[in-house]
Design goal:
338 residues; mainly alpha; 71% helix; globular
Length: 338
């Protein structure tokens, strides 16, 4: 698809409703929101059902975690990488994991690893981009999961990391994390399991689905007011890198969209530095995951994650741009000398 993709919609691969440039802005936003919902409906449905499954499953098993934050982040990476869903679809899964008692490091790392360490996305990245951009994307993904996540959790007061404890304090805790009796027979156990799962499914649905539509609407506003292709002729300054990083970390795009769109924009003339910033920040986090992390774990964690990813994206883009400029200068000097 790279090089031949037509950006029919700011947030989707394909558009159910065609967004015409001559349309009024409100109509573009509405059409883009509808297209986003259509594009993400399967992945979101998967995320909701799996999120409820995690919530039910962890209730029936002993809580498993390590004493160290970095080990718990590695555990989250091992859980998230095989899931193969976008960061938006992984948000309900993270909601279920954390509400069931998983550690914050494990929850965040699983959510981030799912879109960034997916084998198909990585194969696309190494196929479409210069090797330095692909390697940088992979290395920074590991860095965020294994270093940034546990560091941010370490900076957060422990009391902010216990959703269940806060719910219990005000008497509104809806989750019974007790274990079933080992003497229970098969039929009552099966009925009880189904009831638990349906209860957990409803818990996930009412706390994530409305936020999905909100995230799609907010992303549609940003995507239409500041389209990514408008940066093709931009200079690679720190200010432009910052703007691209903020937009990239805000937009709730589907999995693989970051690689395909960045590859297309690279072919259209977008500088290597802006491509690096975009391919790192677009898909690793989003406004939807920000809302879910903030409402489930801690708003401080959500803000710090956003700031860290934006900062890393700026630094990575600047570094890649400097490297490419030196490569071009070296090539020109070689041609002149010969």
């Amino acid at each position: 698809m790279e090089g031949s993709l037509q950006l029919e919609d700011p947030l989707s691969f394909e558009s159910l409703l065609t967004v015409d440039p001559s349309m009024p802005m409100w109509k573009k936003v509405v059409y883009t929101t509808v297209n986003w919902v259509k594009t993400n409906r399967r992945g979101m449905t998967f995320g909701i059902f799996i999120g409820a499954a995690f919530l039910t499953l962890i209730r029936y098993l002993p809580v498993r975690s390590f004493s160290g934050r970095y080990a718990n982040s590695a555990l989250g990476m091992a859980i998230g990488a095989p899931l193969g869903v976008c960061v938006n679809c992984a948000a309900p899964i993270a909601k279920g994991m954390y509400s069931a008692g998983a550690r914050a490091e494990t929850t965040l790392s699983a959510m981030i690893a799912s879109p960034t360490l997916n084998v198909v996305v990585l194969t696309m990245a190494f196929s479409l981009f210069p090797i330095e951009i692909a390697v940088m994307k992979l290395a920074l993904s590991f860095f965020v999961i294994l270093v940034v996540v546990p560091f941010i959790i370490r900076l957060t007061p422990e009391i902010e990391l216990s959703e269940n404890a806060k719910l219990a304090e005000d008497g509104t805790c809806e989750l019974d994390l007790g274990r079933p009796s080992p003497q229970e027979s098969l039929t009552p156990a099966a009925v009880g399991f189904i009831k638990d799962y349906l209860k957990d499914l409803w818990f996930i649905v009412i706390r994530t689905v409305p936020l999905m539509f909100l995230a799609g609407f907010l992303g549609a506003i940003v995507g239409n007011f500041v389209p990514l292709e408008s940066f093709s002729a931009s200079e690679t300054t720190l200010l432009i890198l910052a703007v691209v990083a903020i937009i990239g970390v805000f937009l709730p795009v589907p999995i693989g969209f970051d690689v395909v769109v960045a590859g297309t924009l690279l072919s259209a003339g977008l500088s290597a530095g802006l491509v690096m910033t975009l391919v790192f920040t677009l898909g690793i986090f989003s406004v939807y995951s920000f809302i879910i992390v903030g409402s489930t774990i801690s708003w401080k964690v959500a803000r710090n994650m956003t700031g860290a990813i934006v900062l890393i994206g700026i630094i990575a883009g600047y570094g890649i741009q400097q490297y490419h400029d030196r490569q071009i200068d070296a090539g020109l000097e070689f041609l002149i000398s010969n």
